[in-house]
């Protein structure tokens, strides 16, 4: 079937001749069944003998996974790598803590205030920064949290300096600490799943098509008449708001506190980048699960007393180095990330088990899915195929509205 693209030319739309799977059929895809099983397991953990200490670690892991999804929203989809995303994590956390500790504002009001201020910080940084490209953008995002950190130190009377602030009020109060931990765990799990679902739906809409096209060829999207800067700033501000939400919620838990080492250090920005790479950039789900995996595993490594052979360095002292090396291995052997690669391997196994029958997918826009089912074999052809599909989707979403 032939369609008219944004420039008025008539082109063949290969997707128009392909039967789209129904929503019900998509929900029965193996990946969703596995995901549902995972949700059930996480929901039952407090009843499966998991200790209070382990639940505390999982609370922190879920909020770090939420933070990783916020990073993936802008860096994984637009391709604009943020090296200082911890600034939004910190703005959300410190804002909520200061309002609660200094002015008695309850968490139900201080947390939304932290989200709003993080979004404002996203506007202030994103509007000038996202008009730049390459190393200039990366430099802006790298310097911003360093400036904020020095501000916290200079005005230590307000922000607590390098030691930070005392812990603000908890989200939940109860006579027994175990009940507080369990309640915080379910709040963290529910928020993690809700934000993941919301971001997935958003990224699989017309906005996701545009952001994917920007990642593949920004100049072509601009030539199509779309304001690239506007879409990039929107993604950046959305990312900042979600990061602020993660930070604001985190400081009101038994494991979080408004300290630079937990919220703002350069290490935090590096950790979230590594977590998203491990899980799978441009997938939301992979980044979120990568964040949970990173935080939980990092906590386990930090508790180890063993030393690494030959170099005689403690495992707990070299945990970040170990993760960085693992990320390098993943980038080389599994460039799509652990979870997207596992999904693709599962699909191939199902196809072989069904005698070559194609397994229905849900039309996701992650980089691992963009070439699914195509004949492209080399990286250049795969990139062209990803961009063609993204621009086809972009045409479908926006061409009709502009011709009205």
UniProtKB/TrEMBL annotation:
Membrane topology reported for the UniProt record: Multi-pass membrane protein
An example molecular function term from Gene Ontology annotations: branched-chain amino acid transmembrane transporter activity
Compartment(s) of residence: Cell membrane
Pfam families xrefs: BPD_transp_2
Regions that span the bilayer: 29-48, 55-71, 109-130, 136-158, 179-202, 233-251, 263-296, 320-343
UniProt entry keywords in alphabetical sequence: Cell membrane, Membrane, Transmembrane, Transmembrane helix
Stretches for region Disordered: 354-382
This protein's name: Inner-membrane translocator
Protein source organism: Halococcus salifodinae DSM 8989
